[in-house]
């Protein structure tokens, strides 16, 4: 597999290089030069394969010989060791539960695969890989739990004091082993500024092998294609082959992976990009003008993104042809009031509790159906996180139905530990050098 930069189509780097760099120096994003079609026979018979088998087929088609077959199979079995069931709500409506991994969010697919790919490429005796992450909540948990116990790696996670939910704090602070949590007396932006300064610091770079485990890393995108194929397989088993996916979108990595799956040959009829009022993409598809904005806080806070970092990848997949893109991608936005109404509607109709991000994807399906009453496709809305991660959003009667998963219960009895730091870079630097 060779990759180019979206800012330089002539650049060629290996998968390993792209994984450790995260981002090309020209600040573009890495994209595969070649997106080979999966063989038609595989798609025809996809319902006969398991999730790990599908994952191997897709990954090996893209990666070619970057990782030998047996190693890649073992890596996938270790990384994707939880289910992604498409739960049937009615004849034509399914919710794809992507929250059965350790951090209870779909980011586990990306983080677990990335950590194992990095560990695979680190040769014995190489310098320890030091991952630095700033988080406002969800990404940090997925990265911490994704790298937990992975040899030859160490993760330092910075989070703002008092700004993450109780479950997120548990996920960040109870790990021990190769994971350190740092509670910063400041905001998320302060955390991010500290990490950025560390990456730019010559002394730290001389001493440590630093990496960002950034959400735009190509090794996080690839494993997110797996569950689109696997869902198609689950529906095909039930005789449903016209499929629409609705994806709650913030940085557009998740739906970007869906569109990559489409380009690899997955016969999806339509993708719906569902956003909150941070609506740069729906506005672009309406007006043709791509205008980013500072983000606004909403109930679906993992989607509070005013400048979606993966959008350029999606434009590249469609060779910058907006008309072609619009044939496959529809986009709608919903505000907090609508989100809450959506949560209540899903509960009333299906007795199902959806997190606020998931509710937005559901609302988008309903809107699409209203606009296309003739369309009889099966619809799948992606549930990107477990409802228990957002306890403050729900009305009491719905909140009472939320079951706390085993993964969380297991953390509650563990001791919490976070090192506490201020917002000054010198303090953070000293902490890194001395610990
Ligand atoms: C990260 C996240 C999203 C947004 O996914 P993108 O790939 O950034 O579009 C949606 N829901 C939840 C719960 C998330 O954590």
From TrEMBL:
Annotated keywords: Amino-acid biosynthesis, Lyase, Pyridoxal phosphate, Threonine biosynthesis
Requisite cofactors: pyridoxal 5'-phosphate
Gene Ontology biological process terms in this record: threonine biosynthetic process
Positions of the Threonine synthase N-terminal domain: 4-79
InterPro entries (UniProt xref): Ser/Thr_deHydtase_PyrdxlP-BS, Thr_synth_N, Thr_synth_N_sf, Thr_synthase-like, Threonine_Synthase, TrpB-like_PALP, TrpB-like_PALP_sf
Catalytic activity, as annotated: O-phospho-L-homoserine + H2O = L-threonine + phosphate
UniProt family annotation: Belongs to the threonine synthase family.
Superkingdom in the source lineage: Bacteria
Protein name: Threonine synthase
Single GO MF annotation: threonine synthase activity
Pfam family, one: PALP
Positions of modified residues (N6-(pyridoxal phosphate)lysine): 107
PROSITE patterns assigned: DEHYDRATASE_SER_THR
Pathway of action: Amino-acid biosynthesis; L-threonine biosynthesis; L-threonine from L-aspartate: step 5/5
């Amino acid at each position: 597999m060779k990759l180019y930069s979206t800012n330089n189509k002539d650049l060629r780097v290996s998968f390993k290089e792209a994984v450790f760099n995260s981002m090309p120096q020209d600040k573009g994003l890495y994209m595969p030069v070649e997106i080979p079609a999966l063989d038609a026979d595989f798609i025809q018979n996809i319902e006969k394969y398991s999730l790990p088998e599908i994952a191997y087929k897709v990954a090996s088609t893209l990666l070619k010989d970057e990782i030998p077959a047996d190693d890649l199979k073992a890596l996938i079995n270790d990384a994707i060791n939880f289910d992604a069931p498409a739960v049937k709500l009615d004849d034509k409506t399914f919710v794809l539960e992507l929250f059965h991994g350790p951090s209870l969010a779909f980011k586990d697919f990306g983080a677990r695969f990335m950590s194992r790919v990095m560990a695979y490429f680190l040769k014995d005796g190489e310098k320890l890989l030091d991952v630095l992450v700033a988080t406002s909540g969800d990404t940090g948990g997925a990265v911490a739990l994704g790298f937990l116990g992975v040899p030859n790696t160490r993760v330092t996670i910075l989070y703002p004091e008092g700004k993450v939910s109780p479950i997120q704090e548990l996920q960040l602070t109870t790990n021990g082993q190769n994971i350190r949590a740092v509670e910063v007396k400041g905001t998320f932006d302060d955390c991010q500024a500290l990490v950025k300064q560390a990456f730019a610091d010559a002394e730290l770079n001389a001493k440590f092998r630093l990496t960002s485990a950034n959400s735009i890393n190509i090794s996080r995108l690839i494993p997110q294609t797996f569950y689109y194929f696997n869902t198609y397989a689950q529906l095909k088993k039930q005789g449903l082959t016209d499929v629409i996916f609705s994806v709650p979108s913030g940085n557009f990595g998740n739906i970007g992976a869906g569109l990559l799956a489409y380009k690899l040959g997955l016969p999806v009829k339509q993708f719906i990009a569902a956003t909150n009022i941070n609506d740069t993409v729906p506005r672009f598809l309406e007006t043709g003008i791509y205008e980013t904005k500072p983000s606004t806080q909403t109930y679906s806070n993992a989607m509070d993104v005013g400048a979606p970092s993966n959008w350029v990848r999606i434009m590249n997949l469609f060779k910058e042809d907006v008309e072609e893109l619009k044939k496959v991608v529809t986009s709608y936005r919903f505000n907090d009031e609508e989100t809450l109404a959506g949560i209540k509607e899903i509960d009333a109709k299906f007795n199902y509790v959806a997190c606020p991000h998931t509710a937005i994807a559901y609302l988008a399906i309903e809107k699409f159906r209203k606009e296309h009453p003739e369309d009889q496709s099966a619809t799948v809305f992606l549930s990107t996180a477990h409802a228990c991660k957002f306890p403050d959003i729900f009305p009491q009667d719905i909140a009472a139905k939320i079951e706390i998963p085993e993964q969380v219960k297991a953390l509650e009895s563990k001791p919490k530990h976070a090192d506490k730091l201020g917002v000054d870079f010198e303090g953070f630097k000293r902490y890194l050098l001395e610990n």
